[in-house]
TrEMBL record:
The keyword Ubl conjugation does not apply. Residues 124-166, 509-528 are annotated as: Disordered. InterPro entries: Chromo/chromo_shadow_dom, DNA/RNA_pol_sf, Integrase_cat-core, Integrase_H2C2, Retrovirus_Pol_polyprotein, RNaseH-like_sf, RNaseH_sf, RT_RNaseH. It comes from Aphanomyces euteiches. Residues 153-163 have a biased composition (Low complexity). Residues 302-464 form the Integrase catalytic domain. This is Integrase catalytic domain-containing protein. Keywords: Endonuclease, Hydrolase, Nuclease, Nucleotidyltransferase, RNA-directed DNA polymerase, Transferase. GO terms for biological process: DNA integration.
Amino acid sequence: MPLHLQNHKPLAFLSGRFSGASSRWPIPDKEAFAIVESCKRLEYILLRPQGFVIHTDHRNLAYLFNPTATDSKMQRHQADRLLRWAMTLSGYRYTIVHIPGHTNTWADMISRWHCSAKHNLTPDPAAALRGPNSRTRHTNAKNDTSAIDHTPHSSQSHPPLSSTKASVNAITIPPAAPLNAANFQWPSWVDIDQAQKPFRSNSHGAGPPPDVTWNASTRCFCDGKGRIWIPPNATDLKTRLCVVAHAGLSGHRGTQATFQPLKELYVWQGMESDVIAFCRRCLQCLTVRGNIIPRPLGTQLHATRPNELLHFDYLTLPLDRATNDNYILVIKDDASGFCLLHPCQAATAENCASALCHWFSLFGIVKTWVTDRGAHFKNEVISALSQALSTQHHFSTAYSPWSNGTIEVLNRQLLRCVITMMIERQLQPNQWSCLVPAVQTALIHMPSDRIGGRAPVTAFTGLPAMSPIMATIAGTFEVLAMSTDDMSEDLTNHLNATALALTNMHREMAKSSDSRRMQAQSRRSRRSTPPCFSIGDFVLVGVVCQHLPKLALQWRGPKLIVEALSEWIYVVEDIAEPKTRSTHHASRLCLFAESKFMATEDIVNYARYTDGGHCVRSITQMRTNDTAYDLLVNWIGLEDIESTWEPI
């Protein structure tokens, strides 16, 4: 059937504005982007068994989306962009049909619709960030073009302003540095007048809410408290008001500090929700917040029987003047909590291997080890020992000490015990090595709630725990005379009873330990947020240094998630050249925008600023003057003509 005889009805309208780097794209790229973005946003409509038809008045569109056809004169970045879009469209079943421009009536009329540049209200405030982003609105009206007029006039009355529901075009992501932008316009009476003008004429039967009336003195709509009413479709005006109330001289204060002065002068439906969303997505505020986001505890290796899993770590202490020891190597059994302490002068792989061999000579080879990623554990010596003994060496997450919390808890108990005994005996901090045997005795003979009130030495060896209080009772010993056969039988019965008792004790101990562990995870999960990241999301990365300068940024980015190594570990990539990659735990990541977000030049420059500026590609020349030396620096991501002279 000819195109002009087909009965087409609109299902959705998409529109947007090119800004930043996207405004300098070639015309074919802009027309190609409109097709790709429409397919992505309307995927739930276009995934059909019979496919769909794309009508366009661009003859070369099929050529642009052909990955095997390349243009030798095309810029590399342009060819890469078209290839990525072609791969996106490859997941759809579609047919491209060229139609002449004079028959493409409605699309041509909408694209030429007049809109004043001075009062161009962006329906989606994040459109300026995403570049050619789009908004979606559904309608059943035939040939409806009211989407160009931002928000259609409704004949229904507005809900009361006291409603807490957010406005239709909710404020989501504020610009990176709006007050520094050259095109930022401060809200004025002209903008308010233009926003309220359609409601004064009442040509479409629309009007303000019942509690808003015309104020003759201010010549605008106000509520009963004299606050200026902002219409629901004036999203750009709302965004600029939030910018003025939050950024600049307002000091990027909290939500209430931003909302309080704003609600004294203005009012609109869902104001508080909009302000909360604006402040939570402010890029500057996200950059200076704390660098750890609580996440639910993940799974960790644990043993069900003694001598099945070992944890070991070095604890640094002051240099002992008698032995020159500076470290204690702590080796702990996971199931029972039994430990051995090895003072040493340096945290080396040789000392670690020697201490492990000592444990294995006493209690047997343990098949699974858990440590952090220190150089004294992750090296060829420990790897060769593990391979020779046919064991598995598991490393905890980098910069996440809680992932190896079993040994960290023991280190804390050990340090507290050393300090208290040192104070009790009035020793100096450099005299701690003589206390190691007494500290180890206290740790392994101390009852633990985690294993049902038993001491680690009892849970590991079956021997009764020793307590100093037992010395207050004088013991008596009785010597029994028995034959060799009776003694052998008595010993056999004792060993069988001991083995049975140990088996039952280990079973109860594992059950008690698992129960307490699940309770601790449940308590933490109530105070934490599960990670919800996907490939392509934009995130901020927390700085892991514990002692930052007071004016240092807590978060850097935005960066792009390119790979998920596990549920908790993600690989991120810089959005600025040279696009280096790094691996981070989910607690160090903060979601900034989802994958549909398009990073503009403004966002890229901000990410480059948080990372310390451009990276040096090469130094080509040097010059001198009366006071200093200057170097001609070529920057990664910039052309040679943009090289700058930098002082040394």
